[in-house]
Input
Amino acid sequence: MQLPKHKITPGQFLHGLWKILASRPQTPPSLAGNPLVETILNRRSVRNFTQQPIPEDVFSAILEAGRVAPSTVNLQTWSFGIFTAETWKTTFGSALPFRAQKAVMILGDTHRNRSVLETFPHSPLVEYSVAVMNASLAAMNMNIAAEALGVSSVMLAETGRSGLLDAGYLQEKLCLPGGVFPIMTIVFGYARQAYPPMPPKLPLDQITFTGHYHETDPLILQDWMAQMQAGYKASHLFSSFDAQLQVYRSKINQAEEDLQRMIFYKAEN
Amino acid sequence: MQLPKHKITPGQFLHGLWKILASRPQTPPSLAGNPLVETILNRRSVRNFTQQPIPEDVFSAILEAGRVAPSTVNLQTWSFGIFTAETWKTTFGSALPFRAQKAVMILGDTHRNRSVLETFPHSPLVEYSVAVMNASLAAMNMNIAAEALGVSSVMLAETGRSGLLDAGYLQEKLCLPGGVFPIMTIVFGYARQAYPPMPPKLPLDQITFTGHYHETDPLILQDWMAQMQAGYKASHLFSSFDAQLQVYRSKINQAEEDLQRMIFYKAEN
Output
């Protein structure tokens, strides 16, 4: 978790904003019109929902996409906490973030299988990593299934004390046994407005390599960072990208301490 | 990483097999026929590919789904290693697993942003967790985009020294700087056969909770484990679920040691 090394100038702000507004996912022309590809590429994180409820069959299909997601050796090392606006309020004493209709908390779960599988006692980090990986696959599958059904969502790891930045708090609040790790909460609803522009994404050739790892071009990285700062400023008039990262900064030491305890706890049990 | 606590009987084998063959994803009847939902729910891990090449535009769209995936504060903490059968062979000296056409290695990357963002020095586990989470979201997005384009795939964390079970080996082989973590490799191709049955998935009410975490029914867990063993036996005539887990067991101590070094290395640099 990090803070930008440099503030942007007004010129960089305008240039960054222009680049964001001009950028689009790169759909190969030959594949334009494939509805699922378009759905995947045009997905956005949505933080402004109508009060229209999500029908039960639609929400069931979203959960089913999580249930049937792939996982290492099909071990399904996940649990899903399901909340309505009411049960979220009862549990946490606060409103569901962004006044969404439903929430699914995604947790890595290495606890469940212990009653039927011999544990390997000295591999807490590998087990944790596998659980985070698998649970995140399930999360993405739910997110895309929702998009496919016209339901929007955003994945939260911090807002509303909903994910790994509040792992210790959630462990206590939800009575999580050892080996269960809160990762994120997806909140779902119908988007109130047209989807926002795509946030600035690094070019493909800067995030890929063949053979050996290679470093990203520093100028491209700086340009991207200026876009990030401009985009945040434009969409959060009374805040800034730096301020958002400061929120993370304020929680990260506690989160680190809690995760250390939660992951390595297992080795002793 | 774990071994089953009990061997299954021939009766459990047949019962388990029958349950696997009879199970289907639960598509709500009102949503049957939605092609996007069907694609997501009927996705399978495929390990048997034809030698038909994947057209460049199709593969580009798959990579684009990774590039535009969601990530925490849009930090895109991932890198993708892209391989053909030839470059895989050159790099690793072995054939691409399952004779696939293309491979994308998914790596968590907390290294790239360090040149433009101030690092938080004492949060290696939080940073690592965020990177694994984000990179896994990108992986699932690519996997579903491939399905949408008729391309099948399987995510590998161990087979062919392709993921986190070989983190230390891959760090050296691919010249990965500190803060870059191999997670998995997705291999892509066209499926040679009709999709296999769905591997045994736990019922939704056993993997979800509302309010507080609750334990899974032990009888349902045992039944699931019997199905896991039966399914593995049926599809791997000369192997077993236990044998597969033994492979993991043989690698896991080294992987744990390498991950510890790779994650906490950062705190000192």
Q: What stands out?
A: Strands of chain A lie at 2-4, 78-84, 102-109, 117-119, 152-156, 180-189, 208-209. The two ends of chain A are 31 Å apart (CA to CA).
